[in-house]
Every structure is written in C-alpha cells, then in structure tokens.
Amino acid sequence: MSGYMEEALELARLGKGQTSPNPAVGALLVRDGKIVGRGFHTWSGVDHAEVVALREAGEAARGATAYVTLEPCSHRGRTNPCADALIAAGISKVVAAMQDPNPLVSGAGLERLRQAGIEVSIDAEHTAAAEELNEPFAHFMRTGHPLVTIKAALTLDGKIAAPQDNFGWITSEVARAGVQLVRHFSDAILTGVGTVLEDDCLLTDRSGQVRSRPLLRIVLDSQLRIPLQSKIVTSASGDLLVVGTSAATADRRKALEAKGIEVLIADGAAGRTDPAKVVEYLAARRYLSLMVEAGSRVNWTMLDTQIADKVLFYYAPKILGGMKSLPVAGGPGRARRADAMLLDRLTIHSVSKDEFAVEAYVVKDGS
C-alpha cells in the first residue's frame, strides 16, 4: 500500500506551483493489483486529481481502490465534489494520506464516502509527507493567513551585506537555483525599498516552470521613494504592490498608479509601513504563502512582531566580520540572551559541497 501512496505523492508534486489557491493533490486508482488511473491537480477550476484519474480509468474504476494525498472534497466550488465523483464511479475503497484542513471539508468528504458504503482509511505513515507537500495550504486553512517565510543568504557569521561594495553573491549558483524553486512555490515575495535602491532587483520567478498565478512582488516603501525607472517598476504587469504610508505625497502615489501599479497605504508605528496589514491584504485575496527576501531591518520587524512563521537561511563558507556588516536581523534586537527568539523543528538541508540551508519555525507567544 505504501508504494501506491508514494506514487500518488509524486503525482501531487507535479502540480506544485500550479494549484494555488488550491492544494496540490495526487490520485492513483488500483484494481486487482494494477494501476488503472493516475491524476494530479493543476489550475484552479480545472478538474481535481480524482476526476482526472477516474477519466483515465473509465469502467476499470468500478471496484478499484483510490489512493489520494488529501481527503476528497465534499463541497461544490469551481468544480463538483470529488467524493461524489468517486461514489458515482463505483470506487470500493479510498485511502487518504491526510484529512483536509479546509473547514468546508474537514472529514465531511470521508464521511460522505462511508455513508455510500465505501471503505475509508487514513494512511498515517504518509500523513507527514502530505502535510509538508501542502504546508502553505494547511497553514492558511488553520490560521486564515499566508505562511510567511524569511529567506536569506548568509555568511557563517550571520551577515547578509558588507558595509560598502555588495556586488556579487554570498551563495553559489546552485544555492541560487534552489531559491528560484522556493520562489516558484510561493504566491508572493516581499522586500523593502532599501533593497530595491541598493540592488535594483527584479524579484521574479526565474525557475522557468509554469505557475498558476503570477508571483506578486511587494515593496515596503513608506515614502513611495521607489524609482519609476527601476527594473521592478518597469517590468510590472499587474504583479507589483507598493506599500506606503499616508505620509507619502499624492504625486508619488499618482505616478505609480499611472504605471498600473497598485499602492496600498498601511500606516504603522513611527511612520513606517505595517507588514501585518500586508498579510491581511494577502489573506483576503487567498495568497497562501509569502516569501520575505529583504534587508536586515525588515527581517527584524517580521521576526519581532511574530509575523514570520519560519526561516530558510542559506549559509556559505564565508566570513565578513566587522561591526558594520549587516546581520540577517538588525533593529534593536533583544537586550538579554534570555529573551532570544526561539525556533524549533529545525532541519538542515545540504545545498552544495560546502553550503547548507537551515529551515526552522518561529516559536510564537502562547504556543
């Protein structure tokens, strides 16, 4: 059984980056020990994985076992309920890797199958893998907010920028290619105007893979100082959000809007933008994940306010040293070691021969 679910998970991974705001799902239909149907979900509104697999199987689906990476949906959205399709096709058994965290489903799909006389079970051995596959979706469904990840490239002494010349890269081409995949699997990416002024960055998804929705690029810019001729502005095509404050001049806002760029006014403390309002903006539009690729100050704000849910730090075998090189998280910091921010569920990923990445989750107050 485990081999069938593993293949269903591989099918689901084929849809990653192509399903938001829906989850990536894989389905495998097996009858008399033979695979008769395969399917995975791609675009929102297109047939779900179970329906694709049923179509491939045809009459062979009757009496088959369905291995699905997520509980079949039981509600009517842009498509008809998958639970109903499985029932109509005469499926005899459904094995799901995990229950759907969507409150509209959350066990209702499995219950509908049981009521129709279909044997149902959860494959606990693969639940963790299924959760990881759809981490942003599960987080959004449980919290109502996108999963916020701070990504940074660091030297071994935790620095992200030198005090003067910052041309070149901290990490290798291999690491940077990996980052493009992380961007590809993200719905939105955020930076500060300081990074735009310093690097004239694009912040695009350059993985070359197909995505279901454009990567929304977001710039925190309290005074709307972003240059109109910057690469990120001139390349904008409905995929750029500039976040300012009411202190910015009306002329600056009009100039950006004249270029088709959306401006969000999000007043925060001390005349700065409020990232929490950006997260609310994304949540209202069902963006499941936000990747933060910013400077030291923005990173600190995201961590200190507990907006960030996790970190993904890429380390290179280099040391900058000095008191003026910027750390990954600047700002006032914590005055005592006892007050240090805590992270848990830490995983170390090998990136290249001499590089590694650290993935860990921010421990929130009250958790």
Topology, element by element:
Layout: H1 2-13, E1 26-31, E2 34-40, H2 49-57, E3 65-68, H3 82-88, E4 93-96, H4 108-115, E5 119-122, H5 127-133, H6 135-143, E6 147-154, E7 159-161, H7 173-184, E8 188-192, H8 193-199, E9 216-220, H9 231-234, E10 240-244, H10 250-258, E11 262-265, H11 275-284, E12 289-292, H12 296-304, E13 310-315, E14 326-327, E15 343-352, E16 355-362
Parallel strand pairs: 3-4, 4-5, 6-12, 6-13, 8-9, 8-12, 9-10, 10-11
Antiparallel strand pairs: 1-2, 1-3, 7-14, 13-16, 15-16
Describe this structure in words.
It is a single chain. The chain is α/β, with parallel strands linked by helices. The strands form three sheets. The chain has a nine-stranded mixed sheet, sandwiched between helices. Strands 2-1-3-4-5 form a five-stranded mixed sheet, with helices on both faces. A two-stranded antiparallel sheet has the order 7-14.
